[in-house]
Amino acid sequence: MFDQLSERLGAIFSRLSGRGRIGESDLGEAMREVRVALLEADVSLPAARAFVARVKEKSLGADVLASLSPGQTIVKIVHDELTALLGPADPAQARLHFSDAPPAVIMLVGLQGSGKTTQAAKLALRLKEQGRRSLLVAADVYRPAAVDQLCALGKQIELPVFERGQGDPVAIARDGVAEAKRIGLSTVLVDTAGRLQIDDALMDELSRMKSAINPCEVLLVADSMTGQEATAVAKGFHERLGVTGVILTKLDGDTRGGAALSIFDAIGAPIKFVGVGERVSALEPFHADRMASRILGMGDAMTLIEKTQSLYSEEQARSLEQKFLRNAFTLDDFLDQLRQVRKIGSMGELLKMVPGLSQKLPKDFTVPEAEVNRVEAIICSMTRRERRDPALLNGSRRKRIAVGSGTQVSEVNRLVRQFDETRRMMKQFGGKRRHFLGK
Ligand SMILES: Nc1nc2c(ncn2[C@@H]2O[C@H](COP(=O)(O)OP(=O)(O)OP(=O)(O)O)[C@@H](O)[C@H]2O)c(=O)[nH]1
Ligand SMILES: [Mg+2]
């Protein structure tokens, strides 16, 4: 995500940070380079110029903070300006707003293929995890497969879908809302049709739909891979529909960053979520300050902490701690942990968020998924008793497990040895849970 921009800015600032004094000409040169980096990231020229001018002005007027070097002071100013460019001053505005009276109606709009249908399901899943049940409404009637796609996603996340095949999309949306009210669901997510380009017929339909269902959020789904062009599209939708928030999708790709950096500036509606993959769980709330840190290569400690925290509820953590203390941590628990870690995506992505580590890791760094899969296969080939009590694992049992999991006896041996070591270590550290959980 924004690798190129991040690299360029990182190089500029590490040069500045190394200096004890920064003269006006050093600053001027650095800012010229920042402008080029922004343009290469597909930020519009006026936006890049304005950005650099603001940073320059503030840098020249800045009192160097006692604890910061001149270079660090400039990086801090750039960070603050980048944060201001990416989102509203009050971060609460970037959260989802719900109407007082249920159901809260959320409309998803955007160009064809931007990710509306997928984000509708992702959002529904996220809300479900927060205790809000949604009705998904299939108001894209032009592509027959669109309805099927939403139904399949609904099944996957176990939420109802309101559909009527073809028909008048405005009427379908209206009846969908009525249905949600009737069955007592708190939220309605309306998936709408997209076009290759903004056209009057589409805008007219969406605008009539909006009047009919009175949504509390009109979310524009925008593909971050389209770069600066996304801002023109955003303006088109905003003028006709009054967009209240943006979901920026496909940030997992090698997007240059232009859309993310320009869209809030262009329409004043905050980015509320980002799509980071095709899976239904691949949606993250957007935080301007954290994104700025990530772009500047400062890592993203907060998101990392949240991710690890969401893995362990307090209760789970306590129960794990008890298990360690009683030495009752079994291979089943071990397998659980392994699956938990996998749930949050590849470990490589996670490690890249660690401040200071992000730049040191090789670009193509990944944790060997295959290794994790083998460990999983080995544990799954054990009987329940063996998982509870690995001491049972004599030579013939190990041979059976190796055959069953398609691995070698030596791999089984290694796993058992590692598990024993982990357990011994955990017992020692069990009392210091906070360290272990990284909280
Ligand atoms: N990599 C990646 N792919 C995504 C993301 N969001 C959606 N996609 C993919 O993008 C493609 C289009 O997504 P859809 O949700 O069908 O897009 P849409 O806007 O509903 O498309 P139309 O209904 O045709 O207008 C699908 O293949 C999705 O899997 C994302 O955040 N990252
Ligand atoms: Mg769709």
- H/E order of the elements? HHHHEHEHEHEHEHEHEEHHHHHHHHHH
Helicity range of the residues? 55-70%
Task: Identify the CATH homologous superfamily of the largest domain.
Answer: P-loop containing nucleotide triphosphate hydrolases
What is the tally of helical segments? Answer: 20
Which CATH top level class of the largest domain fits? Answer: Alpha Beta
Strand portion: 5-15%
Rg estimate, integer Å: 26 Å
CATH architecture of the largest domain: 3-Layer(aba) Sandwich
The profile of the biggest β sheet is:
8 strands, mixed
Task: Return the average pLDDT rounded to an integer.
Answer: 83
Query: What global shape is seen?
Result: flat
Count of separate structural domains: 3
Distance between the termini: 26 Å
Bound ligands: guanosine-5'-triphosphate, magnesium ion
CATH topology of the largest domain: Rossmann fold
Question: What is the number of E strands?
Answer: 8
Features of the shown structure:
439 residues; alpha/beta; Four Helix Bundle (Hemerythrin (Met), subunit A); Rossmann fold; 434 Repressor (Amino-terminal Domain); 3 domains; 8-stranded mixed beta sheet; 8 strands; disordered C terminus; binds guanosine-5'-triphosphate; binds magnesium ion
